[in-house]
Fold this protein.
Amino acid sequence: MPIPTLIDAHCHLDFINFDKDRDEVIQRAAQNGISDIIIPGVSTSNWQKIKALCEQHKNLHPCYGLHPYWVDQHQENDLEKLENFIDNTTCLGIGECGLDFRAEQADKKKQQYFFKAQLDIAERKNLPVIIHSVRATEDVIQQLRKYPTLTGMVHSYSGSYEQALQLIELGFYISFGGAITYEHARKLRKVASKIPLTSLLIETDAPDQPDASHQHERNEPAYLTEVINVLVKLRSESTTKIAHHTISNVKNLFGL
Ligand SMILES: [Zn+2]
């Protein structure tokens, strides 16, 4: 059977983890049927690298943002820098931005501030947002309700099915990665099995979040096939059907 074409909706191909063999990683992705990759920005320091990478490879697509995980590094004027940067380059979306309320991610107030400010930018520029939400889905939904015209995706989704339906209602896609390949992730797998095909995306979040077959290894976009294989089993739908819908969803969202 030929390998179906897939799009990795979220992959940090610019991270230093790929500096030594990035060309091989891109090649392996293509060999495994990954036609395109969306690369989200996480801080001012990586935007230029993403820009250069996406100019070099036409199937890599850039987004720019300020990730909540690195909130301590972000400065007030980074928001102005973000707005100027996206005015002067190709940019498919704002992000990765959002909220991370794990205990070690203390500065909730600063996270909220940068998240809201980036939602404002996305609204002004009419761009979709890529949202990181860890133990914060309720807060994310509360914020998004204030922006009825915004669209976007919640990457590596970890909330409940009910919350997913609220996000879909608000115009958001729900994206799943390596986490669903672990058998013990019962709750998450149940959610992934029920999301409507018209709102479903797949991603690797590489180099992070490797699937069960590559546990403790560096993740890479070629492993997206593991994610879709698990979805096929969980949902009892064909690979072709899931591939077709997730591709058309990502194209719709980012205007590819
Ligand atoms: Zn990410």
